[in-house]
Design a protein that fits this description.
heterodimer, A: eight-stranded parallel β-barrel, four-stranded antiparallel beta sheet, 14 strands, 30% helix, globular, B: alpha/beta, eight-stranded parallel beta barrel
Chain lengths: 290, 400
């Protein structure tokens, strides 16, 4: 099992590399990110860090007029050692066009929920995929035991609950004639009957509402560790120092599962708003269960 | 003449028949398992066989939504179920789960329609499914007519576009609000519509929304104005609403049927208001035209409004007509009495009539039809047919 980490501040790259040689680089085609790396920066990283596997995060949903742009991006790196994390099937088609489907990692957030989904994707020759976070760890384990391609799992980080093309912050501002910058990154929502704070973001691609708190599967790592290939720790919008410390805890825990609860305690003291929806229980959907 | 399909929803067999009789070219339904909208009545396998037979007898098609994003536990019995659907002569299944697509392809010859839950929003996404062997993609609802046109120009399988009904605020299939806030899985039919709740917006601990709540639900979609352009760029026009009433389905289907027929016959629509007024006779919420005009502004969103507008105009369904005694046999659905003028809404036209008396099943005069699903008789000089709809005529006095 290997860690996969996200790069926010470039100054932290060397420290991240002490923990993992698999680094995700946010790009202008990411569904959301605080920092974006342009093509020249990526080329430089590829040239200067040959001991690292980089993944370009290109997981937005694309409209027709945006296809040429993403095709040009992938074309630029088609013969380079760059992998691609994607959510839109258009990216798969472009990877296929350049004969590099084996560099694709499918990350649609919500659509991979069972073990029989995997043969569909391994038949298409991609490198790996991530299942939904809204299935219990025991289901992830079943998927892992039946996997036919590389299995990644997001074990840490902010997780989106809602992704929309609607500009919900801009639209509310215009409707109410308010004065704020909808592109600021310090908004949150509170539902009228709940106390939870839901971080909300709007960028040029989409509006995103995140689940309350930072998702962590550390306490249940023993359930899935032997069944997955990569543990994805998403550091987007998390303080870099905290993120490094959290990643170190995960790495240490992965070699010392007997003391998992201690590591989990340590993580929760470091980051008090840890959450773990659906780690152990599945959601319901039949009307008699409501 | 350009071929275009009008596709209607149906939550049960009776609504399926109404949809077809009132002008749908195809109907989509859900079965007891594997479909979203678990609160719709949904179809048994026997219902599906009967529904398919009825559709085919009326030159219509039947599609079955098998569109849950399935978890491991939901896969039990999948292949048998898909093979049963094929044996029931349904014309296609609507899928969003990769497992379902793969198993349907391996074990059946069912036509595959790819659900809007996949949020396919460009030509390469359509091509992906074209290569897989799907016969149709239900496009994401975030597309403008221009974008749909460009997709159509570059692809070879059928495209289906929503024209009416509820719209997800999120990219379809990508919303877990209900899951996290209520434990109810939106992608398996349990959506609690958390996007319609009231929220407060804060920035750095300071509340921004003052006396009104922050909301982000979307208005319903009504695409009457866009029908002529849509006919030219896609293959199927879809009405959402498997949980909607029989009256809603009849009204909305018939409205779009008449509009499509007018456009195909004349090449233009003379009066769009006529169709908007027809639509308003069904229970309806505040609406806009979605993303079809390419705009993505606050006029498309629902703010601080009670969106439901209960409609009690639907009195009953005609079961039979006694020509000799000029009596309509009515299956009552909502309260009505002799105060109101009534109209008979049928697939072809609408005629008004008034009543002095209401008779119960024993032909006793009663003061009102009070009980839903009771049988009453009404005097009417003109002939009506089974499945015609009796409803209250709206005028200044009784408009609420």
């Amino acid at each position: 099992m290997k860690l996969v980490l996200t790069l926010d501040d470039f100054n932290y790259l060397d420290e991240l590399k002490t923990l993992s040689s698999n680094i995700i680089i946010p790009t202008k085609f990411s569904n959301y990110s605080k920092t974006i790396y342009d093509e020249d920066s990526i080329l430089e990283m590829l040239a200067n860090h040959k001991d690292t596997t980089f993944y370009a995060l290109i997981n937005q949903i694309f409209m027709e007029e945006e296809l040429e742009d993403i095709r040009n991006f992938i074309y630029k790196f088609a013969r380079k050692r760059l992998k691609y994390v994607f959510a839109d099937l258009a990216v798969y088609e472009i990877l296929k066009e350049f004969n590099i489907t084996n560099k694709g990692v499918y990350f649609p957030n919500t659509l991979i929920c069972n073990y029989m989904d995997l043969p569909f994707w391994s038949n298409l020759g991609i490198y790996g995929l991530l299942p939904s976070l809204e299935i219990p760890l025991k289901d992830v384990s079943i998927i892992g035991k039946n996997k036919t391609l590389k299995l990644f799992y997001q074990a840490f980080g902010y997780s989106p609950m809602f992704q929309s093309k609607r500009k919900i912050l801009t639209n509310f501002k215009e409707y109410k004639k308010l004065d704020y910058n909808p592109k600021d990154t310090n908004f949150y929502l509170i539902e009228e009957t709940r106390d939870d704070k839901y971080f909300v973001l709007e960028n040029n691609h989409q509006s995103t509402i995140f689940q309350a708190g930072i998702h962590s599967a550390l306490e249940g790592l023993n359930i899935i560790l032997s069944d997955i290939d990569f543990l994805f720790l998403d550091g987007r919008f998390i303080d870099n120092e905290l993120y490094l410390k959290a990643a170190k805890i995960f790495l240490d825990a992965s070699f010392d599962l007997a003391n998992l609860s201690d590591y989990d305690q340590e993580l929760k003291m470091l980051i008090p708003n840890i959450t773990g929806d659906f780690l152990y229980n599945d959601s319901v959907f039949k009307k008699e269960e409501f | 003449m350009k071929k275009i399909e009008l596709l209607a929803p149906a939550g049960d067999l009776e609504k399926l028949k109404i949809a077809v009789l009132y002008g749908a070219d195809a109907v989509f339904v859900g079965a007891k398992n594997f479909s979203l909208r678990t609160r719709a009545a949904n179809f048994t396998m026997q219902d599906l066989k009967e529904g398919a037979k009825f559709c085919h007898e009326h030159n219509a098609k039947l599609y079955v939504a098998t569109n849950i994003v399935s978890h491991n536990e939901d896969l039990i019995g999948l292949v048998d179920y898909l093979q049963d659907l094929e044996a029931a002569s349904v014309d296609a299944i609507i899928c969003s789960s990769y497992a379902f697509m793969l198993e349907a392809k391996k074990h059946t010859n069912l036509d595959l329609h790819i659900s809007t839950q996949q949020s396919v929003s460009n030509s390469l996404g359509v091509k992906f499914y074209e290569d897989f062997g799907a016969t149709r993609v239900v496009l994401a609802r975030e597309l403008s007519i221009e974008q749909i046109k460009k997709i159509k120009e570059k692809t070879n399988i059928e495209l289906e576009v929503f024209i009416h009904g509820g719209m997800c605020a999120s990219y379809s299939g990508r919303c877990m609000l209900s899951n996290h806030m209520t434990n109810r899985d939106a992608n398996r039919g349990g959506c609690a519509h958390s996007c319609r709740w009231n929220y407060e917006l804060y920035q750095d601990n300071k509340k921004i929304s003052d006396d009104k709540y922050f909301q982000f639900a979307s208005k319903d979609l009504v695409a009457c104005l866009e029908i002529p352009k849509l006919i030219e760029v896609c293959d199927s026009l879809k009405i959402e609403g498997r949980m909607k009433s029989l009256h809603y389905i009849a009204t909305v289907v018939n409205t779009y049927r008449k509009e499509i027929d007018e456009y195909l016959e004349n090449g233009y629509i003379k009066d769009y208001n006529k169709y908007f007024n027809m639509i308003k006779k069904a229970e309806n919420r505040v609406f806009a035209n979605g993303f079809l005009d390419g705009k993505n502004d606050f006029n498309k969103q629902l703010y601080n409004m009670r969106s439901e507008k209960a409609n009690q105009d639907f009195c009953g369904l005609v079961l039979d007509y006694d020509k000799e005694h000029k009596l309509i046999k009515v299956d009552v659905r909502n309260y009505f009495d002799t105060v109101y003028d009534l109209e008979v809404f049928s697939p072809k036209d609408t005629k008004t009539f008034s009543i002095d008396k209401i008779y119960d099943e024993d032909m006793n005069v009663i003061d009102a039809a009070r009980h839903p699903r009771s049988i009453v008789y009404l005097e009417c000089d003109f002939e009506v047919k089974p499945y015609d709809i009796i409803r209250i005529v709206k005028n200044e006095e009784n408009n609420d």
